[in-house]
């Protein structure tokens, strides 16, 4: 569907994207994960043709694309419905109102469709921005930081919208610096750091259960760490403040390892099996 | 089709733009004021024999003073009006990202041309309406219109003239990083155009040079050539603007 070949983008002497190679398949949901300034928005803007001055090649099939830019201003003196009508009419005249309302309903914007954009909260605006990306039922939907700056309640609503789109079989390319916001919906995660794609993996592979995560109420003593390292099943131990990530040699040894940890009287508040996306990124 | 929708949308935005409305209204009021003042000057000059002869000479050479003064004032005001309105017209939309919603749906040249032409339409209508109202006022004051072309031509010239500056300032918007640099470049360009006009050779690249001396003694062919000169500036500025806009990161 989309093929990115050797994409490089510079801002002056700053290398924003460095020889990016990427293939996006139809019907999959891709999460582009990276810290602020990693190059996520630059990559998305190159694909969406906002950025033109780059080297390399981007090939996109002749498909409808929906694009929600990050923090781009919407016109203030127009109602949500009229704004979407304007965007819709740029592509098609048929059933404009019907399709706009469909998009408004899908993103839970229908109740405030008659309100002017200037009267809407940040979260409502963000939903209108997503609604405009969904007009025309696009095959590919690109969302740049759809949950950025939103309160937890609205983040949950946006996640719900993404899940709805996934269930409709859409191809989604979503960027986020907060992995938790998108992890439930993604098929693939693409990790980007300093303009370089570090990894592209299936989410299930990343969340494999060969990891035990211990949440502690106090830091482990040196003795406790040594005890953990002595357990035969354990491949590696990583300690981040009150969290301990334990890599196990074999998935079948999870229960046995937990038993041994308990036996050594290591006090933990909670235990999780399988890796969270944040853990992957930290490591 | 997309162009027309974009054009209508921008035109509607211009109509709702309070700043633009205020600027255009100020132009109209100033114009009306100068028509009134020029009428008073004319009446005053008629009262003394020496001045009456001078007035007749002016009228013979340049045309009616009540048209001459508003025309000259318009030539002065139009670059200022277009500067105030256009120095940040496009660069603001680029910087706040509002164009990003459009580029996935429309070609860049459609977006650019829709913006330039909608702006020209608004300013053009404002010029035509202002002059029409002034002419109506003069008609009731006993002004003799004579040949219709002498009314139509100043309007045509002012439209071309406004279009030159709208095109120039929009082009400057495209390569400016922000509205302050755009304002700076727009002002510099105005100064340069005035400076070039003073020079024997450089005057040919100044848009000001191509404003016909309509109320003087220029031949029709010269007037037509100068109008064509202004049109050439419009085309050149817009082609450069389009070229740069097509390659610019938004």
Oligomer: heterodimer
Specify the structural class of chain A: alpha/beta
Helix/strand-derived class of chain B?
A: mainly alpha
> What is the average of the pLDDT values of chain A?
84
Overall helicity of chain A:
25-40%
Largest interface: A-B, 24 and 22 residues
- Proportion of helical residues of chain B: over 70%
Give a count of the beta strands of chain B, DSSP E runs of length 2 or more: 0
Quote the beta fraction of chain A. Answer: 25-35%
3D shape of chain A? elongated
Textual characterization of the structure:
The complex is a heterodimer of chains A (283) and B (250). With 283 residues, chain A is of the alpha/beta class. Chain A has ten helices and 13 strands. Chain A has helices at residues 40-47, 80-89, 96-106, 122-134, 152-167, 179-182, 203-206, 222-230, 254-263, 277-282, and strands at 2-11, 14-24, 29-33, 55-60, 65-68, 140-144, 171-176, 188-193, 196-202, 211-215, 234-240, 243-248, 270-273. In chain A, the strands form three sheets. A six-stranded mixed beta sheet of chain A has the order 5-6-7-3-8-9, with helices on both faces. A four-stranded antiparallel beta sheet of chain A has the order 11-12-10-13, with helices on one face. In chain A, helix 2 crosses helix 3 and helix 3 (96-106) crosses helix 4 (122-134). The two termini of chain A are 31 Å apart. Chain B is mainly alpha-helical. Chain B is built from ten helices and no strands. Chain B has helices at residues 2-16, 18-47, 49-62, 65-86, 91-96, 100-103, 108-140, 149-175, 179-198, 220-247. In chain B, 35% of the residues are buried. The model of chain B has no long low-confidence stretch (mean pLDDT 85). Chains A and B meet through strand 5 and helix 2 of A and helix 1 and helix 6 of B.
């Amino acid at each position: 569907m989309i093929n990115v070949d050797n994409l490089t983008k510079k801002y002056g002497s700053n290398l924003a994207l460095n020889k990016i190679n990427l293939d996006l398949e139809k019907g999959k949901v891709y999460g582009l994960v990276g810290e602020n300034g990693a190059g996520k928005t630059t990559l998305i803007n190159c694909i969406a043709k906002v950025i033109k001055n780059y080297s390399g090649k981007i090939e996109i099939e002749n498909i409808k694309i929906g694009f929600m830019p990050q923090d781009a201003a919407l016109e203030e003196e127009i109602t949500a419905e009229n704004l979407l009508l304007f965007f819709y009419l740029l592509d098609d005249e048929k059933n404009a109102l019907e399709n706009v309302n469909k998009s408004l309903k899908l993103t839970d914007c229908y109740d405030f469709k008659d309100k002017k954009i200037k009267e809407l909260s940040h979260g409502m605006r963000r939903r209108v921005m997503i609604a405009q990306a969904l007009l025309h039922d696009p095959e590919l939907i690109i969302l740049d930081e759809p949950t950025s700056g939103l309160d937890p309640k609205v983040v949950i609503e946006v996640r719900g919208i993404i899940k709805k789109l996934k269930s409709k079989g859409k191809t989604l390319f979503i960027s986020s610096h907060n992995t938790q916001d998108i992890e439930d919906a993604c098929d693939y995660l693409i990790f980007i750091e300093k303009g370089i794609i570090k990894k592209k993996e299936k989410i299930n592979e990343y969340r494999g259960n060969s990891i035990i995560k211990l949440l502690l109420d106090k830091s482990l003593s040196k003795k406790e760490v040594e005890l953990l390292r002595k357990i035969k099943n354990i491949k590696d131990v990583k300690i981040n403040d009150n969290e301990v990530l334990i890599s196990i040699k074999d998935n079948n040894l999870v229960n046995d390892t937990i038993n041994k940890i308990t036996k050594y009287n290591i006090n933990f508040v909670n235990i999780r099996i399988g890796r969270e996306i944040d853990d992957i990124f930290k490591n | 089709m997309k162009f027309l929708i974009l054009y209508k949308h921008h035109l509607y935005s211009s109509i709702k733009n309070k700043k633009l409305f205020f600027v255009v209204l100020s132009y109209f009021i100033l114009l009306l004021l100068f028509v009134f003042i020029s009428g008073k000057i004319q009446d005053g000059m008629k009262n003394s024999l020496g001045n009456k002869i001078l007035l007749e000479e002016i009228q013979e050479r340049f045309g009616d003073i009540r048209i001459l003064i508003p025309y000259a004032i318009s030539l002065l005001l139009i670059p200022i009006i277009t500067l105030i309105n256009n120095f940040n017209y496009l660069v603001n939309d680029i910087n706040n990202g509002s164009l990003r919603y459009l580029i996935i749906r429309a070609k860049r040249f459609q977006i650019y041309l829709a913006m330039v032409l909608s702006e020209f339409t608004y300013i053009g209508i404002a010029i035509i309406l202002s002059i029409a109202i002034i002419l109506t006022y003069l008609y009731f004051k006993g002004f003799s219109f004579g040949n219709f072309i002498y009314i139509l031509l100043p309007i045509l010239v002012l439209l071309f003239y406004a279009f030159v500056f709208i095109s120039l300032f929009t082009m400057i918007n495209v390569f400016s990083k922000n509205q302050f640099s755009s304002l700076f470049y727009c002002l510099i360009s105005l100064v340069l155009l005035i400076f070039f006009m003073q020079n024997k050779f450089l005057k040919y690249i100044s848009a000001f040079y191509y404003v016909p001396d309509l109320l003087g003694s220029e031949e029709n062919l010269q007037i037509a050539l100068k109008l064509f000169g202004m049109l050439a500036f419009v085309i050149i500025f817009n082609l450069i603007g389009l070229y740069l806009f097509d390659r610019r990161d938004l």
